[in-house]
């Protein structure tokens, strides 16, 4: 028997039913189209923004055929990979001698005959801005040449063509406060240029640089440096050549090998896009076969996301088909249709609405991507160039929408085929007992999924983590009908409307469970990423070592003695930076001849050392014998305590700051303790006022004293210090009484001890004013930083400014990610709750009519809708939070495994891998979103009801 006529009728009935029930059909189409729209937009944006080989070559070469460059090896034979990413001398070849390396390489001789080329050189420079001075780089390149199209594009003004003209990227112009026509001066040689145009690099919209014609910056700068010894010569890069071969020729692999023989490296468009076989690449044998190894992990992650997207579509659309399936059951069944025909009509409805939703979603995806393209490009930091469309991927996405529409209708079709026609016509469905097998399977899947995910985490296999997480989430889905049924029992002692809402959810599990599952799926993914992101941020914050005390700035002398001119530099800082509070001046201390001054004699400097005692409390237990065993035996908290202890602090933190050399002793007073060290202790201030040094690292103290060892060696050219301290070279060891600060101050960046000036002079040490500390009220803006650099330059450029690095951008990025995840999950939660509430209203008209008939007030309709929405949203969020912890914890176990491996190599390496709950995100999703969903549902529901005759 041919089943086609039956299916043809089923599709005709499904199409007519979809047209008749326009509201429900539009709802189903929207539910299918929205995820398809998102996947389509994501695919288009990803493929368009992804740096393909062709785009990378355009970013490097523009419209040129190849880039030729010399190496520091000299004119010796080279080998390279086809993409130019790796190169070296042939295996077994002798290393070039220094004389060979100094020989120039005739790069132009390696060009294909008849080629045209452009030269490119870059030099770092400081230039004037509207606010002051900014550090940037200037590239000498004829950017007006058509050979640069695609790599550098003019956005405003004109290309520079004369030697006194220059162009800048839009990013630089914005931060510098400049406009086209302004004059820009390169500091040092004092070369002035007119800003003629704004340009952008399509592959790097955040680029911050200037462009000038060849020969207009570097050569005049060098001439100025040759005439004036006070001008430093330009530190320009070696030149590169952008080559355009004769028409139809290109730069072949044969040309690349010929250039390698002359000591020239080549990046050829033709070779990179169509690389030769490994048998023709001499260097291939040395590289092995691991050139690209990241595709598997990316593919696994993509498949996981696609699977969850399909699941979410099915879960969101399923309830709508369930409502329509009961009506179709009554229509077809009353006309004598069989249960199989009812199932066929429901499945045909899924195919019809799924196909429409897929087409609408794909079309809207194209439209939204084109509409928001500028925003996407700004976020990605690069231009698309052209919208990259892969037809098979788009077709697959559309087919995915169609298939998921059918899958969404599958379960309602099966259930509808089992229901009584009389119950469908009268609306009397009663309370049905849920499947006893499904929850058991769900629990088994949940336990197995958690076990697989944990196993993958402990063994570092992300594929197992992804698979186990999906399996665990599917297990929770299997348990949702039982959980929803249990909700009905919770309403026994609640008021009327929440009791009805809970019982309605329990009685109509086929409608409620998928909506709860959809919310759970969205929340689970968001919570997983948010938990991992928060945990990773906490780990980075723990491992982060600041370069200075947060919220501070230090002005340090660049010259010694009277040449420092610190008063003018201090005025420049105080007038241009957001300084709050007073200034704390500091000095540096040394023994013998000043080691910061260059002497030709190697042993012409003295030394100053703060001797660290040995033994328990002074030696770091994470160094030396038994350190590895100890590190692996103790907990992460104990390891953290040891790492931050005074004994281990200097082992972990080796940065030298403020001109103190290794001893980290700063000359200063109580103001240094208050402003930079943040030691607000009257006893410490009193001690330093009385001439007692304040020791910040207690591991250097023994019995309240420290040992200071000074070697007084004087260079014959150091006449000043030699006159002050005549006599033979000597070594002195002094025991100094100190005030020992609490252990937490051992982590003060760059300072180990603060010593009064008179104490240093009493010990025969040399002291010199070296700078000042400032407390900043906020982070300085670009304009303020440029202004202070200009003021320091006007003050003689005798000092430099150091500011604290507080990882503000990283924290901002983390907060932004968490906010985006919360918004995404919140929108899905609101949508799913709204959908199920709308279906509940359509499905429960008879119950609402009965309530009105027995005297229920009009507001019951509003409150019932609100509580129905609240039940779905809150249940889904709670389950989603629990499900989302599985992949997050498993991935943190993977990180822990890697951290323990690093610790085995170095016990000082931290294995601290915390699991930090994103409570703000969870609170937003668990409290704000459900309450908002309930209020919106109640507010948008009409309290008026037209009474109709109740069937039966």
From TrEMBL:
Keyword ATP-binding recorded: no
UniProt-annotated location(s): Cell membrane
InterPro entries per record: ABC3_permease_C (IPR003838), Membrane_comp_ABC_pdt (IPR038766)
Transmembrane segments: 300-323, 344-372, 392-416, 437-458, 470-491, 512-532, 817-839, 869-891, 911-940
Signal peptide: none
Cited Pfam families: FtsX
Every ABC3 transporter permease C-terminal domain range: 307-420
GO cellular component: plasma membrane
Membrane topology term: Multi-pass membrane protein
Entry keywords, A to Z: Cell membrane, Membrane, Transmembrane, Transmembrane helix
Source domain of life: Bacteria
Region (Disordered): 78-104
Protein name, per record: ABC3 transporter permease C-terminal domain-containing protein
Lineage: Bacteria, Bacillati, Actinomycetota, Actinomycetes, Kitasatosporales
